[in-house]
Amino acid sequence: MARVDTPDVSDDDFAIFNSATFDSPPPAVSYQTPKLISRLQPNQQQQLPRGNHDSGNNGDAAAVASSAEKSPISNDGSLSSSFYSQTKDGGHGSYMKYVSNMKSMYNKFRGKDILIAVMGMTGSGKTTFIANATGRTDLQIGHTLTSCTQEIQIIETTIDGRTVRFVDTPGFSDTYLSDTEVLEMIADYLSAGYSKEMRLSGIIYLHPISDNRVTHHATKNLDMFRKLTGEKNLKNVILATSMWDKVSPEEGLNRERELQGNFWSVFMAFGAQYCRHDASAQSAKKIASMLMDNEPFFLELQEEMGKDNKALKDTAAGREIMSQLSQLKEQQQKELAEMKEMLLRTAAEENKAAMAALEHHYKKMMEGMEKTISDERRMNEEAAKSSEEKIKELTERIHKLEKKSSCVVM
């Protein structure tokens, strides 16, 4: 897990991040809290056009520059002379409120820290992507199908002069963690973020183009990802393919077309963007820059648990997990019944070697069944707790996160 670090807050409602995780920490960067952003009136919220992924972030950069030119706030933070003349001649009685709102908008795009989640299946290259984007060489990177990321990790860097924090998460169908445990871990993190009013700027979902087919685990991962995120937030998602060096151009192109036309079609219909990641630092930073000027948002799971006060099992992602647990338990019960019959037949034949192998397999199946029942019980028990109990447990889990890592959560 990652540490939850409550940021200091200045008189201007800007939270200041002070990192103690680097030998030479980058200069402190102030970011505007979502609470301050929400003070803007609807007719004062300027919407920036989304950038084109083929041309990097030029569209957003031009929009920001245009906004800065029209702003009454100068580059040094002072009021422009033109604004003074307008207020004097035009008789604007509430210009100070307008200045405050414009300053908020200015800083929203100029001074905020960026939070980007990186998700995908085990082996998709999530940690490698973050290492490429940050230049970190000390991250534990797996080179097999065995998971290395068993906790949420926060890795910070600076891109285009702005602080960017990448959230590295374990994927569903993890080697060591059950889907229930992964969901609980992500839910804890998101709940902590909601309580601090901290939002994501975007999500990068990685898929290895080297996979010759989209497996059941991959489609299940996508379903869980969509329910965690919510359809309305898919416009803030980048679907990126990795490991192009492991396929021929023709193979990669065919798989790319299949992903976009079939498995990712719903995501892209809701506004998700697609691009290739070539495993270079330049590529990773360019993909991240596509999300940096997004309007920060809460994930669906955050709103369901934080605003609607739903139990985890009653969220969209939680219902998906409960459905999977029910199906898995039914399948395991059927397989155990078949295994018992096989054991009885083998015992009658007095084949000791076969009996030993079957008993070992039966024991493993029983362990799997017990794990499924335990996960189902945990979800149900969590739903039955009172609000006070949930708050107390979340607080305790956050304290554990603080002791476990030297990185801030948000």
Short description:
The protein is an alpha/beta fold and 410 residues long. Helices cover 50% and strands 11% of the residues. A hairpin with a 2-residue loop joins β5 and β6.
Question: How would you describe this structure to a colleague?
Answer:
It comes from Trichoderma parareesei (Filamentous fungus). Keywords: Chloroplast, Coiled coil, Hydrolase, Magnesium, Membrane, Metal-binding, Plastid, Plastid outer membrane, Protein transport, Transmembrane, Transmembrane helix, Transport. Its cofactor is Mg(2+). The chain is built from 14 helices and nine strands. It has helices spanning 34-37, 58-70, 81-90, 95-110, 126-134, 179-195, 216-229, 249-263, 265-269, 281-289, 300-307, 316-349, 352-384, 387-404, and strands spanning 8-9, 14-16, 30-32, 114-120, 153-159, 162-168, 202-208, 237-242, 273-276. A six-stranded mixed beta sheet has the order 5-6-4-7-8-9, sandwiched between helices. Strands 1-2-3 form a three-stranded antiparallel beta sheet. Helix 6 (179-195) packs across helix 11 and helix 12 packs antiparallel against helix 13. Mean pLDDT is 74; it is low at 1-93, 102-111, 142-149 and 405-410.
